[in-house]
Design a protein that fits this description.
This protein has a domain of 45 residues. It is 40% helix and 0% strand. The protein has two helices and no strands. The longest helix has 17 residues. The radius of gyration is 24 Å and the shape is flat. The model has no long low-confidence stretch (mean pLDDT 84). This is Cation efflux system protein CusA.
Length: 67
């Protein structure tokens, strides 16, 4: 199945290039960066960074009598 897909895209270079350009443009339009390009309508993915300021914790799984 994968070999057929690869063979198809190798034989149809125009479709491959158009698909690649479409994916790149779509990726640039949804990137969370503000490039002020203005050529594409933008719908960026919201990014929220919340730092973990709590203490480091480790989970220890052990067995004890009665368990």
């Amino acid at each position: 199945m994968l070999n057929k897909i690869i063979k198809y895209f190798l034989e149809n270079r125009l479709i491959t290039i158009l698909l690649l350009i479409t994916l790149v443009v779509w990726g640039l339009s949804s990137a969370p960066f503000n490039w002020h390009g203005g050529l594409l309508p933008r719908n960026p993915v919201p990014v929220d960074a919340i730092p973990d300021i709590g203490e480091n914790q480790q989970i220890v799984a052990t067995e004890w009598m009665g368990r």
